[in-house]
Write a structure and sequence with these properties.
Chain A is mainly alpha-helical. Chain A is built from 14 helices and no strands. Classes of the chains: A mainly alpha (about 230), B alpha/beta (about 350).
Chain lengths: ~230, ~350
Amino acid sequence: MATYAEMQQIYDDIRGDFRYHHELNGCLNCGICTATCPSAQFYDYSPREIVQLLWTGNVEQIYDAMQEKIWACAQCMTCAARCPFQNSPGGLVAIMREVAIQHEMQSAKDVLRPFGRVMLKLITTGNQLSPDMIQPDHFPDWGPNIQKVEGDLRTLRKAIPMKTLQTTDTAWEVSLKTSVEMYTIWEMTGVLKSLELMDENLFDVIEDFIDEKREEYDEWLEEQEED
Amino acid sequence: MQDTVLIVGSGPAGLSAAAQVTGAGRRAVLVEKEDTLGGAPILSGYAKLVPSGEWARDAIGRMVQRVEEDPGVSVHKGTRVTRLDGEAGDFTAELDNGQKVQAGAVVLATGFTHFDPVNKPEWGFGTFPDVITTTQMEQMVANGRITCPSDGRTPERVAILLCVGSRDRQIGREWCSKICCTVSTNLAMEIKELSPETEVFIYYMDIRTFGLYEDRFYWTSQEEFQTRFVKARIAEVTASGDGRLLLKGEDTLVKRPIVIPFDLVVHAVGMDPNQDNPEISRVFGVDLEKHGYLQRAEHYTNPCGTSRPGIYACGAAYGPETIDDSISQGAAAGCRAAADLQPHGRKAG
């Protein structure tokens, strides 16, 4: 359990975010955000409650909401499209999640752990999912449509007119240059820093991988100059 | 110097201004773009008015009759002003019927336009026949029968949604339309009088039955007419398999989203600036304020004025307004305009 000073600091970091005053203008408790929220249908989560906690500066309940509730938001932003004050409860949740990561909260680590594999795939291939990952058992929500992609994957992918999509172990082909540029973006926007805070082991693996790819890219550049 | 005031618009404010001008011994020329005098209460077929409880056709009808029988008022119906030249004390207006009007002052009583709820498509107006506006409900009450437009059945449950086209940044309506809360509680009671078995629900963010309307409308509608007030803004209106409408809202007391069935949904539509205001601004050379209503000259010392000397305004041309206050402001603007004319007892020239 955090001390009051720690909880206050978390709240200060949330409302100190440069987006905060753009996302929160006021609240009349009309409930249109919660009424329209798909997550509120299934989880103990209410965007109106999040807005109210921030609007009233309830630091203890804000801290409590960051343990579980804020992770139920699907970030669909329907709440932002509906709110008559033009608040963005989903945008506020995004800020709260980032602050949870900065403060290395256990809830953030627990929620993000299963995504480590996705992160690794993303950074090593440039894609989150690849066609050869699609197993009928893993996608029950696709229903009978799954049969359409169960055939000869290589032939099916060949049928796509774009050459960069004729792949089976990545969703599309990502060039070395694009990958290296993505690493720079992740570095500069704090994604890698967040990863380091959440999962140090995964960060080390990914950092080594990035270093290797950058070297590879530098070598390729040198080769071009020699030619 | 002229002895005539040109009044544009013949709703409660314009009719009041005309009567005030001739009451002060001056002449009024009343120009109305529609073929009927009376403005929104007559054109939209309002039922009983707030707060008098009198039928609109009787109450506003009396105002129309007073002006039509007044020899000091010349009326141009189905006519618009296309050009205005001159300055305070000596204006010349051209009308689209080819006539010219000489006037010492002008009163703009150009009113408002009802919000069109097709601009909030998620609330189902224009998609489902049983989603209607307060003006359509007013007409139903005036005709004495409450039914669902889809099949003519008597509705078991009616929902009135407040703030449709008001207090909504998403669609650029950053104002309270002032009258819809009271009008809706009044309608809820009228529905109950005509159809006692029908349950009426009002969905609200705040209830703004201001001043003396509190007990007479808000309390009475609950205590004597069992109107159910629910603090929730509806997110979406959809249809269920059985032909009823489904409203998606949050029960803010138990903090859970709920889906509620209704037979009839009424949008309490707000007051937009008159859709002709850009043209009015151009023809008369007056400024609009940031929401699109006419800009008032100065709140405390020139409350009937506009940005152009000699041109006055009143009622909903300035912003959402009640009928009673529009009538008062019409009288004030008529009086102020008459004061710009040549002194009594002297002829021009």
